[in-house]
Amino acid sequence: MNGARSLLSGLVGAGVDVCFMNPGTSEMHFVQALDAVPDMRGVLALFEGVATGAADGYARITGRPAAVLLHLGPGLANGTANLHNARRAHSPVLCVVGAHATDHVRHDAPLQSDIDAIARGASGWVHTSGTTRALASDAMRAVEATGRGGGQVATLVLPADVSWSDGGRVAPPRPFPVPSPVSIEALDSVAASVGEGTVLLLGGDALSERGLRAASRISRATGTRLVAERFAARMESGAGVPTVDRLAYLAEQVRPQLAGATTLVLAGAPSPVAFFAYPGVESDLVPDGCAVLELADAAQDVVGALEALAGRLASDVDPDLAPLSPVDPEPGPLSVRSLGAAIAVTLPENAIVVDESITSGGGLKALTTAPRHSLLTLTGGAIGQGLPVATGAAVAAPDRPVVTVEADGSALYTIQALWTQAREQLDVTTVVVNNAAYAILRGELARTGAGGADERAQRMLDLTDPTTDFTAVSRGLGVPAERATTSEELVAALRKAHAEPGPHLIEAIVPPVA
Amino acid sequence: MNGARSLLSGLVGAGVDVCFMNPGTSEMHFVQALDAVPDMRGVLALFEGVATGAADGYARITGRPAAVLLHLGPGLANGTANLHNARRAHSPVLCVVGAHATDHVRHDAPLQSDIDAIARGASGWVHTSGTTRALASDAMRAVEATGRGGGQVATLVLPADVSWSDGGRVAPPRPFPVPSPVSIEALDSVAASVGEGTVLLLGGDALSERGLRAASRISRATGTRLVAERFAARMESGAGVPTVDRLAYLAEQVRPQLAGATTLVLAGAPSPVAFFAYPGVESDLVPDGCAVLELADAAQDVVGALEALAGRLASDVDPDLAPLSPVDPEPGPLSVRSLGAAIAVTLPENAIVVDESITSGGGLKALTTAPRHSLLTLTGGAIGQGLPVATGAAVAAPDRPVVTVEADGSALYTIQALWTQAREQLDVTTVVVNNAAYAILRGELARTGAGGADERAQRMLDLTDPTTDFTAVSRGLGVPAERATTSEELVAALRKAHAEPGPHLIEAIVPPVA
C-alpha cells in the first residue's frame, strides 16, 4: 500500500474521518486514496482559508480534529489566517501540507518555498514525514499533538514521494490527550477567595453547559460575579442555560465591567487584555490592586474544577437558567437591535450560531432569550472566519441548523465558503449584515487618536463605490439569496430559510453604528 | 510629525507613491497619513492576496516597487501566496505589516502571532522598525532591498507605537539597485559557444523588447536556437517583436523541445526543471551530455550582455520581427483554440495580457500574431494571481488596456480583485474560462501515476454541483459581465468591453481539455 493510503487508513482508524481540502498535483495520491478508503470524507473548498476555517468549526463542535489537505507553502499560507483563529480557539486541527518530492526540493522549482517557516505562524507542532514506512505513525503523533495544550494546530508536511511510494503500513492510534486535573491546592486557593468582590472569568470549556451550570451555582451561593471571555470558541447560550455577560470588546467598556473586583479568578480564560493598544492606554485590563488567581488554563480540566468547587460551596444550590423569552423585533427598517431580535425570535431549537458580526452584533444579546444553542465567535481576530467555521460546524453536526451572522467586510474574505455549503447541501443560513463599510475601523480611527480623517483616508474604510450585491454573489456561488431591509422581511426570510433544506443567504441592509 | 507621516513622506520621496492596502486598527495612523501626504495613492483591496498580487503586477510594468499595507500576521499570511509569485517574478515589492505596539506584544492579545516566521515564507528582507526616529530610514533601506538580487519582496514590520509616536523625520532615498554587469569572461565563454546545437534560454529582462531583439540577431547570425522560460514575469510579444517559443509546461514536452542541444546558455532564466516531480521521472530537464553556461542571472544585466554579444556576432544582422497577422476564430462553440484566436484578433494596441489560463491557454499562442503587447504569467505556480496582477498592472499603466485570461478555479481564489477594478474604474477585461473543473488536476492525477480515479476522488477535482455563475458574481462585485459560448459571442463581447471604459468580465464557456 502506498503512503497516501496508509495515511488515510491510519487517520480513519484514529477517528479522523473528514478532510477539508484544496489539493494540487503534489496531493494527487492523497486524493486518489479517497476511493480506497471510503470512510474518509473529502470536502472540497475553493480556497484554503475555507478549508482551515471549516476544520476549526468542525473541531469546536466535535472536540476532535478534522484533517485539512493543503498544497505546498502557498496553500498553507492561504489557510494560515484561519489556522490562527483555530489556534486561539484551542481547536485541534490536523494540517497535511503536500510538498515536493524529497529529491525535487534541490531544484528550487517554482512552487518551492519554506513551508516550515509559514507553518510556525500558527502551528504548535510541525513535522516533515521522511519515509513512507513511518508516515502513518507520524500521522498518529500529529493527531495526538492536536489534542495537547487544550487543542492546537499540528502540521504534517507530506513530500509527494513519501505519499506515492509503496511500503506504507497503518499505525495504531495513540490515546487522545485529555485535560489534566486541577490541583487541590488551586481549588483550595480559589475556594477561599470566592465571594463578593470576586469575578470568575470563564473561558474555554468553562463555557460548556456543565461549566456554566457549575459556575452559576457557585455564583448564587457565594455572590461571586461571573463574566465570560469575549471571544469564545464555543459558548452554550439561550433558554435552559445560565446566562453570563461577556467581556466587552473595547478596553474602556471592560474597565467599568471589572471595576470593584478585588480578586479575578481565571477559569479557562486568559487574563483580560485590550484587543489592540492605543496611545496612552494601558493594555492590561486587570483593575489596579486586583489579585489574579488561575483556577485552570486551557489544558486543564476546568469543568471538573468548577464542579468540584460547586460541590464544596453550593451543594444545595441550583443554577440560574435563562427562560425562553424572545421578543419580536420592532417593525420597520432594520437596526442592529432589530437584527438581533429577528435572529433570536426565529432561531430553531439546538442551533449553532456563528457570530462574525463585528460592529453589527450589539443586538445579538437577544440570543440569550432564544432557544438553547451553541455560539461560536471570532477567536483570533483574523476576519474571514465566520463562513468557513459555519461550514465545518454544519459538516460536524448535520442534524443541527447553523446560523451565521456575518459582517460584509469579513464575508468578502472567504466568500468561497458558500460554494462548499451549496455542494454539501449544508443547513446553513448566512445573514450578511451589509453596512457598506469597515465600520469598526471608523471607530478605531478615532480611538487610536489618529484624529479626523478626510476623504482620502475615509475611502480606505468605505465599502461603497461599488457596494457589493451579496445576493448576486451568493447566487453565483450556488446559494439562493434574498435581501431584507425591514424586520418583517428579515423574519420572513429567516423562517423560509430555516424551513427549506440546504444553504441560504440573506443580505440584511443595516445602517453602520460605529 | 508622527512616524506614519514620515514613512509616507519618505516613500513618496523615494518614488513609491502607490499603496495597495487592507488595513486594520494597528494601521490607522498610516491610513490617516494619506490625507497629509496626498502624493501617496491608496488603493483598497478587500482581501490581502489582491493587494500583494496588485503590487506584483505594478512592479512588472513599472520595474519599481509599490507598497502594500497589511494587518498583522494573518493579513501577511493572506497575502503570502501572491508574494510567493512576486518572489518568483523578481518583482520589487515593499510590504509594510502593521504590528501591535511594542509594549502590547507581551500581553499575547488575540491577533499576536509570529510575523517574522510568516514573512520568511516569501520575503528576502525582513526588519521590524524599533523607533519612530529611524522609521523612514528603515523604509529607505527596505525600498533599496526590493531592488536587490534582480528584485525581491522586502517586509518592514511597523509596530503601532512606532507609527503613532511623534519624532518622525523624513530620510533621503537610497539609490535603487541596478543590474550588475556581466563579466567579459562570461561573454567570451558564451560567444565561443553559440551556434547550431546551442539553445539560448531567455528569461527575466531578456524577454524585454531590447533583449528579444538582441537575441533574435544572435540567433539569425549564428543558428543558435532561442527558447523562452515558461513562466515569464513579463514578456514582450506580438507584432514588431521577435517571436520566441516558450518552454512547455510538462516535462515530457520539454524533452523533445531541448533534444539535440549540446550547450544550453542561461540568459536570465533558471536551469529548466520539471514543475512537479513524478514517480520515476527525472526532475532536471537539461538533456544528458548537454553543457550549461550561465550568461547572466536575474541580478545581472542580461540585456546589456545580449546586446554586447549581438554587437560582436551579428553587427549587420536585423532581428526577425513578427508580422501583424491575427486570424478570425473558427465560428461556433468555443474551444481552447478559438478562445485564443478571439483574444488575439480583438486585442487593442499596446495592451497588457495577464495569462492565468492554466489548461485553457493552448490557444494563446495566437497572441504572437496580435498587436504588440506585454504578457504577464503565473511565475510561482500559486493560483489566484491573475486578477490581482491585472489590477496592479492597470494602476501602473492607466493608458494601456489590460486583458486577463483566467481559469475558473484560479479566478475563485482572489475574485475580490474585481471590486477593486470597479472602484478604481480600471480598464481591465477579464475572460474567465469556465470549464467547471480543476482540469489540470485531472491530467496530473494520471501523470503522477496515482492511477484512475473513481467518483470520490474525481469529485475533489470537479467544479460542478454547483457550477459557478461568474457573471452573477462579477455583477455582485460591481463589474458588468456577460457570457459567451461561441466565438462570435466572445469576439463581440471583447470588442464591446474594449470600447467601453472601466472593467468588464466575460465568462467563456469552454470544454475542458486536460
UniProtKB/TrEMBL annotation, chains A, B:
Q: From the Swiss-Prot or TrEMBL record, what is one GO molecular function term?
A: magnesium ion binding
Q: Which UniProt keywords apply?
A: Thiamine pyrophosphate
Whether tRNA-binding counts among this entry's keywords is: no
Matches recorded under InterPro entries: THDP-binding (IPR029061), Thiamin_PyroP_enz_TPP-bd_dom (IPR012001), TPP_enz (IPR045229), TPP_enzyme_TPP-bd (IPR011766)
Pfam families tied to this protein: TPP_enzyme_C, TPP_enzyme_N
Q: Ranges for the Thiamine pyrophosphate enzyme TPP-binding domain?
A: 370-507
Domain Thiamine pyrophosphate enzyme N-terminal TPP-binding, chain residue ranges per copy: 1-116
Q: Which domain of life is it from?
A: Bacteria
* Family (UniProt): Belongs to the TPP enzyme family.
Q: What is this protein called?
A: Acetolactate synthase-1/2/3 large subunit
Q: Which organism is it from?
A: Pseudonocardia endophytica
